[in-house]
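Q: Joint fold for the lines below.
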Amino acid sequence: MGMRRKVGGFVLRVNPILCDGFGHCHELAPELVKVDEWGYPIIVNTPTPLADLGALESARYAVRGCPRQALNIERIAEQP
Amino acid sequence: MIALTSPYLWYTTRATGFVALILFTIAVTLGTFVANRIGGTIVGRFELNELHRSVSIIAVVFLVIHITSTVVDSYVPTGWVSTLVPMTSAYKRVPVALGAVAFDLILAVWISSLLKVRIANRTWRFIHWFSWLAFASALVHTLLAGTDSRKGFGLIVAVICASFVLAAAVWRYLGRPTRAAGRTALSPLAAAKDQSVPARPLLDSPPVALRPTAPRPQPTVPPRPSDGGFQRGPRAPSKKRKSR
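A: Joint structure:
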């Protein structure tokens, strides 16, 4: 595993078909995921820079902690 | 195999068996907590999930000690094969077979959880249902094979564990999957949980309001002049086209 330059950003993506609104992602990554009135996630749409290691860490926790495996991290290339 | 026997091995078997039973009771109950979406106010839902995971791992550790000390102790004739394959033990064939079934199911649940990110979530859930069967099998194994579990304190512990898991099963059935089961503590709306939550406008209003009362006017298509006056009807769905 080589050192990857921390360029670009990421967004969390939710699979709305798998999601059952457990709300674990909101607890694990509150800065990235809000919940709506019914407990379903509202994901922050603007890409978070990969250099924000804290946010990336909590995003990984959210992906791991989802009881339905409905989340994944999508990398966004840096805008030229 | 060398003849290795010691009363302490036997005591280890008996003690770790009980500890594993208690830990699996806690694990199953915590799993029911997670599935029934408990938490979010005092304790986070993800914390219950992590606790479920950790307790399960510790329970498996105790189970491995239980099995190892039984097999290593040459006082009773069991073998490594009979820990995985039922009905192969010379000692207490049926009770040990039930333990083997429970161990196999627990291994399946554990390995599928390790592979959780790689397999389909439906598969993982399907395998996870078998933890109930594993617990039932382990409980009967406790009652049939256990030295201590038919009298006194051991029986009390077994009955308490059984009643906990039975209650969890009933609770799980009553709280079967409902979508959108609520909010969590960190939600800004959670503070207003006990106050008057505004009615959900679309869901609480009668469904009549959602439907137009009058039939929608169909747009009339004028005949194309190149058709020579031949007017097609509304196009039937072509059977040749594959639906996606």
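Q: Anything notable?
A: The mean pLDDT of chain B is 80. The helical segments of chain B are 7-35, 45-72, 81-84, 93-114, 121-145, 152-174, 201-204.
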